[in-house]
């Protein structure tokens, strides 16, 4: 058997499972920490600020290294990334929208950068790992996706703050509103007064910053990320080019 024929046959098996996302549509990558309940054992509850800072540095790194990135959203151990590939007629997609490449490289970048950063603050932690998934969305659904994740962040926040102040048995059967009432009445904690990033996560986006006399654009954390249902254009401006 000729080596080229043999190699071609092996490539055919590989290529049968090579999938591509449709072009010129918004792409969302969601990256999740694996077994982070165990990984974060012993850290400050409900919000470990060194851990959050590590996530934000990781988000900035991803934004800088993923082609077409427009916005990164972080909450809990989850990172959502918005990519566009239709800015111009000649705009290319990251890895030509090869799905296996997108998810494997995104998870690898996250794992590598996160572990590099976490060693500086928690040198004895075990290796953290992340998984990733990616898909396309209609333009009209992009903000709804981020709203969905923000709603999950809010639910998680109320739950985490409650769990930090009460035993599990006292929280069973209580919804978000009841948990907030319990926090306020019994602990004097008004959940609404928490910083925005603790209540609903934070976005990382490019901003103009002044360095000396020069204005430059850099990836930065928006500590006052709004409620997306109240300010839909916060996300939409990255999706619809005429809103830039």
UniProtKB/TrEMBL annotation:
Domain of life: Bacteria
Listed InterPro entries: tRNAHis_GuaTrfase_cat (IPR024956), tRNAHis_GuaTrfase_Thg1 (IPR007537), tRNAHis_GuaTrfase_Thg1_sf (IPR038469)
Residue span(s) of domain tRNAHis guanylyltransferase catalytic: 9-138
Protein name, as recorded: tRNAHis guanylyltransferase catalytic domain-containing protein
């Amino acid at each position: 058997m000729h080596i080229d024929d043999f190699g071609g046959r092996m490539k055919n098996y590989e290529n049968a499972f090579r999938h591509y996302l449709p072009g010129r549509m918004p792409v969302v990558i969601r990256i999740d920490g694996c077994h982070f309940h165990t990984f974060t054992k012993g850290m400050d509850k409900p919000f470990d600020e060194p851990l959050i800072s590590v996530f934000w540095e990781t988000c900035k790194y991803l934004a800088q290294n993923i082609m077409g990135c427009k916005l990164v959203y972080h909450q809990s151990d989850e990172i959502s990334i918005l990519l566009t590939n239709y800015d111009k007629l000649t705009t290319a997609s990251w890895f030509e929208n090869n799905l296996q490449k997108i998810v494997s490289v995104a998870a690898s970048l996250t794992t590598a950068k996160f572990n590099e950063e976490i060693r500086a603050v928690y040198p004895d932690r075990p290796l953290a790992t992340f998984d990733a998934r990616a898909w396309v969305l209609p333009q009209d659904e992009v903000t709804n996706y981020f709203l969905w994740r923000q709603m999950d962040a809010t639910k998680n926040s109320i739950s985490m703050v409650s769990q930090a102040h009460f035993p599990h048995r006292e929280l069973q059967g209580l919804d978000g509103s009841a948990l907030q009432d319990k926090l306020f009445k019994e602990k004097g904690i008004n959940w609404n007064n928490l910083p925005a990033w603790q209540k609903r996560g934070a976005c990382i986006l490019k901003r103009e910053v002044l360095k000396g006399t020069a204005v430059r654009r850099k990836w930065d954390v928006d500590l006052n990320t709004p409620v997306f249902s109240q300010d839909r254009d916060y996300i939409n401006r990255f999706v619809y080019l005429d809103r830039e």
